[in-house]
Write a structure and sequence with these properties.
The complex is a heterodimer of chains A (211) and B (220).
Chain A lengths: L7 E12 L2 E12 L2 E6 L6 H8 L7 E8 L2 E2 L5 H4 E4 L11 H12 L6 H7 L15 H13 L5 E5 L7 H17 L1 E5 L3 H5 L3 E4 L5
Parallel strand pairs in A: 3-8, 3-9, 6-7, 7-8
Antiparallel strand pairs in A: 1-2, 1-4, 4-5
Chain B lengths: L1 H18 L3 H19 L6 H19 L2 H9 L2 H5 L4 H31 L6 H26 L5 H29 L3 H30 L2
Helix pairs in contact in B: 1-6, 2-3, 2-6, 3-6, 3-8, 4-7, 6-7, 7-8, 7-9, 8-9
Classes of the chains: A alpha/beta (211), B mainly alpha (220).
The complex binds adenosine-5'-diphosphate (ADP) and magnesium ion.
Chain lengths: 211, 220
């Protein structure tokens, strides 16, 4: 990454989202490149989750622009999924499969080999429980599996929406570690109100509107 | 894209095997309906036209019971986000299409097999009968798949399904019933080539439209 174009760049220009006529957020702009991190803050219902989903390209923006460059060329919208890791309260994995099977299924669907599965399971501390059905996972274990899901494919951009909810202190430490690792040479975005999560990020957008 | 689609289809099959979400309800439905037909008929023989009609009524309702699950169950369980984050929209559609088509084939061959045994149906042109069923299956599963995607976003999922799918499927059902009837009677290929053409073009139009539409449905 020496000189020239940064390897990864994510920009948002005047991003606006409305549900029907209701404005959720308006004219959000920022620019992030490899090695930077952003906290999205604001009170409950201010649009943090909506903004982070829009960045992940799982819901449509109403207006404005999102651009994502990797190695100097723009990544097509339909290929975002290859480079984005996303932990979200709205994400569920399959109850009828084990932790390992879930990650195996996701690897197959992604078209990547499963070499990384055991690594990420160890990283989130679920390796010993990999053979248990998700049905019997605790909420904290499910949250850990979501984190494993988000880093399975070594994404360039890691989007975390309230990543430490339901986690114990060891879980929080694991998230800190992963977040610190990603913001070194990739892009990290966290939607949060948690002071500790916020402190992991170098910059901040606040979605509360003065009214 | 093909590989990813097969991975999604395989996931759905493994999931079905574990949960028996669709299969149990379907088997019950098929066995109940066919038994009722048997008991009410007694020793009476139905005309080929009636047989074709009844057969497709069973197939239609079995399909609308079973095939609607594919998107609805992901949406209800909140797992669609995991899929959205792991594959392109068109791979997802193709995967679900392959799954639904395979399921349709399994269900329908089971229905037809039972129906033939129980009503002692004699089919004169077996080859044409099979071609009709196969083409009908493709048409049916392609319509059912895109409708399942549409209603998975609606709030009254269960009731919407037959209501929406029936008018859309009407041209296909009419052609299928007529071709089935004629093949039971023993027609030559030329006798049902019109119907078969309708069924093929219908399926092609539906699948093409599905791929164009699906992006809009999938990313809300
Ligand atoms: N699908 C939707 N349709 C309509 N309104 C929505 C939808 N999703 C979220 N909202 C609304 O958007 C606002 C922001 O929600 P959200 O992004 O989840 O907030 P946060 O994550 O900051 O707590 C809320 O008022 C919520 O009711
Ligand atoms: Mg939120």
């Amino acid at each position: 990454m020496e000189g020239g174009e940064p390897k990864i760049r994510l920009t948002a220009v005047n991003l606006t989202k409305k549900f029907d006529r209701k404005i959720i957020f308006e004219n959000i702009s920022f620019e992030l490149s490899a090695g930077s991190s952003l906290a999205i803050t604001g009170k409950n219902g201010s649009g943090k989750s909506t903004l982070i989903k829009t960045l992940a390209n799982v819901i449509e923006k109403s207006s404005g622009e999102i651009n994502f460059y990797s190695d100097g060329s723009e990544v097509k919208k339909e290929h975002y999924y290859k480079h984005i890791g996303f932990v979200s309260p709205y994400l569920n994995l399959y109850d009828e499969f084990t932790g390992y099977e879930n990650l195996k299924i996701i690897s197959n669907i992604r078209g990547i080999n499963g070499d990384n599965i055991n690594n990420v399971l160890k990283k989130v501390g679920l390796y010993d429980r990999r053979g248990d059905l998700l049905k019997i996972y605790s909420s904290g274990m499910k949250q850990r599996l979501k984190i494993a899901f988000s880093i399975l494919h070594n994404p360039l951009i890691l989007l975390l929406d309230e990543p430490t909810s339901n986690l114990d202190s060891e879980g929080v430490r694991i998230v800190d570690e992963i977040a610190n690792d990603y913001k070194k040479d990739r892009i990290l975005i966290i939607a949060t109100n948690d002071e500790n999560e916020k402190s992991l990020c170098e910059s901040e957008v606040n979605l509360d509107r003065g009214d | 894209m093909i590989k990813q689609a097969f991975a999604i289809c395989k996931k759905d099959f493994s999931s079905e095997i574990r949960t028996r979400y669709a299969i149990n309800a379907l088997l019950m439905f098929i066995i109940v309906v066919i038994s009722i037909i048997k008991f009410s008929l007694g020793e009476e023989k139905l005309s080929s036209e009636m047989n074709a009609g009844i057969l497709w009524i069973i197939i239609f309702f079995a399909a609308s019971n079973g095939l609607s699950r594919v998107f609805v169950s992901e949406e209800e369980r909140g797992t669609s986000l995991a899929i959205k984050l792991s594959a392109e929209a068109k791979s997802v559609l193709l995967g679900k299409l392959i799954f639904n088509t395979s399921l349709t084939f399994i269900i329908n061959f089971f229905i037809i097999f039972l129906y033939i045994i129980i009503t002692d149906l004699k089919i004169s042109s077996i080859g044409l009968f099979l071609i009709t069923i196969i083409l009908g299956n493709f048409g049916l599963s392609s319509v059912m798949t895109i409708i399942a995607a549409l209603i998975s976003k609606a709030s009254s999922k269960g009731t919407l399904y037959p209501v929406l799918s029936f008018p859309l499927l009407l041209p296909l059902l009419l052609a299928s019933i007529s071709a089935t009837w004629l093949s039971i009677e023993g027609t030559a290929f030329s006798g049902i080539s019109g119907e078969l053409q309708i069924m093929v073009s219908y399926t092609i139009v539906v699948i093409t439209a599905s791929f164009l539409l699906f992006d809009l449905i999938w990313n809300d």
